[in-house]
Amino acid sequence: MPESTSPRLHVVDGLRGFAIFSIMLLHNIEHFDFYYAPTNLPSWLPAIDKGIWDTLFFLFGGKSYAIFALLFGLTFFIQSNNQEKQGKDFRSRFAWRLLLLLGFGLINSAFYEGDILIIYALLGFSLIPVAKLSNKAVFIIAVILMLQPYELYNFVVGLQHPELKMANPASWAYFGKAGEYIPGDSILKTWVGNLTNGKTAVLLWSWEVGRVFQTSALFMLGMLAGRKKLFVNSVANTRFWGKTLLFATLAFIPLFIVKEGLHNWIPFEAVRRPLITVFTSWSNLAFMSILVSGFVLGFEKLSGGFLNIFTPIGKMSLSNYMIQSMLGSFIYYGFGLGLYKYTGASYCLFIGIGLATFQWFFSSWWLKHHKYGPLEGIWHKLTWIHS
Known about the structure:
about 70% helix; about 375 residues; about 0% strand; mainly alpha
């Protein structure tokens, strides 16, 4: 069974753990994709709930998953590079690894329809044809994808026919049907509903909001970051991340202003809707770059410091991601405790912090006795089966 020939990048583990932690908070305030506003709350609490909701989504909505996608591409490079040093081509093994990830995603999707593992498994195949291309070629492809070509096409069509009436996104109807099974007390009906109706909703939604193009682009940018060794601690990289932080901040401000202003500036939906998708994607990319560069610089400045708290969670990211889905669905859905009926964003934030604390203790304990997390170990063994 092949072993890594590269030193472990603890900053990457920490960053991945930070992404898992922030995803945990978002999933909790969303009741794990079951949006329900409790009616039994004190009159003063909904305003606080809204503040927490808006703040967390401003900070992490569309950004945490983007960090995860970037690091997915980085991990592909590290594994591929390790095999290349041994004179082996990793691409066929990676395809098998993606099929295994698809299996994990199907299990996770039964508990939580918003699962990203299936999407990553499917879009991960986009790395195979570009794996041997030059840095310049891969970067150009990533930029084209990040430009959201499909939405730009829709924008051009909208300019030609601004009066065109647009139907609601197809995913809305499927998301609406979740109320038929998530509040119920049957775990089997919830599993079936999530795997059929729920998964259809999420796949459609991912296409509608530009996640398909953006995710593939981030995979490729992560691979390029690995080639350039950008997460290795060095003076040159510190300068790079410092410049990234500055430029990303300067880019985010106008992008965010435009994204927010489009609702009022453009009266024609056929023109406005694709532009909102494009500018949301770009502003999320800019803010994700702020989070990543800020984390890397902070990690280097503090030699890990308190940011190391995220490292155990990050080393077991697959296990922790799936565990949070299982625990979260039990806490909020009808087959479990059904707390969606009683908890707004404030209560859910505390629950999310509590679950993250549990995952930190569990991860720290597990890694004292094992090299890999429980699911990471299974994934690793099956990846290299017959090797």
